[in-house]
Amino acid sequence: MLQARRLFRPWFVSCLLCxxxxxxxxxxxxxxxxxxxxxxxxFSEHIPAEQDGTEGYDGQFNYFIARDPSTASxxxxxxxxxxxxxxxxxxxxxxxxxxxxxxxxxxxxxxxxSLAVGTALLEKLLVSFGxxxxxxxxYGLTLGIFGSVRLSLSEPLAYGLVIGGILLAREKRWLWAAxxxxxxxxxxETTLIFVGAYGLYLLTQRDIKNALLLGMIAVVPFAMWQLIxxxxxxxxxxxxxxxxxxxxxxxxxxxxxxxWTDTPAEARGTxxxxxxxxLLIFVLIPTIWALWAGIKAVQRGKWSAETxxxxxxxxxxxxxxxxxxxEPIGILRFIVGLxxxxxxxxxxxxxxxxxxxxxxxxxxxxxxxxLVTS
Length: 374
Hints:
Elements: H1 2-7, H2 10-28, H3 41-44, H4 59-67, H5 79-83, H6 87-95, H7 103-128, H8 137-140, H9 143-150, H10 155-170, H11 174-187, H12 192-204, H13 208-233, H14 254-261, H15 268-299, H16 305-317, H17 322-325, H18 328-334, H19 336-348, H20 352-358, H21 367-371
Helix pairs in contact: 2-7, 2-9, 4-6, 6-7, 7-9, 7-10, 9-18, 10-11, 11-13, 12-13, 12-16, 15-16, 16-19, 19-20
């Protein structure tokens, strides 16, 4: 009974629900684990969209890289952009012993472990702040993490590493925090936002030594990998996305405004009805609140690492590209960093109303059921 109580925690519940869900997907596809990779014929068979080629989803690019890195470029929409997220597909390839049939299972194992460990570490952080561990569901049961397991994406691994880095940073173990954050950057480049936030915090504390340590260890491997990509693929991977991606905006929230201005008049009503409420509730209100709360904390002299994480993650949301804002799954994956920052800031400052409101993010997990069903 005691062992069962120990297991009945957010990390275990999230992992168990995810495991049940993905196996339902596999069973509905005649036991084929490739259903989790969502391969489209546009890239796998080079059938153009105008000839009814299917798009698939981003997990297919991880699969192509893991299957054979030497030939993967011909199956990728933007090779350098996809190859920069090298850690997840390479771990999958190693775990699958190079066997293509085992790669989807390897991806699933990596992401389930990452989901469990990331959620468990977030629980530990919440408890250290004196709040309920159950708010960790706001991370483990959202589309960006839970849904990414189903889609064979790198977010569970990347942000699990980020949370590990946060825990190490909280314990002032900056060397190991930098190492873990360096790995996170090689899983997904957007995790460098946390490196920047910690760098800013350390500079405000006049801790130049650890700021330089963090920058060198966490950023240099990523920069070196970008140079390798440039020499082998002809360009660096840094950018705003894959095929049809738009650049980062200069004007705050221009990416949101363009959903209206760049959408044909006949489709604006549908867009406003479907995408509008989702963006308002899950993205815009949290971003605006985070900016307000972070600025107020600074004005009161309450600058902390959690304040820095909150402000930097929220500030980035102002300039997110139109192409990310217009794609529901894309933007809900992008806000994982903001979710972590909001949870930790609210926990540190005992903002229980904010913690309760943050559980609305759990609703986002249902988007993966409706938007990607194959």
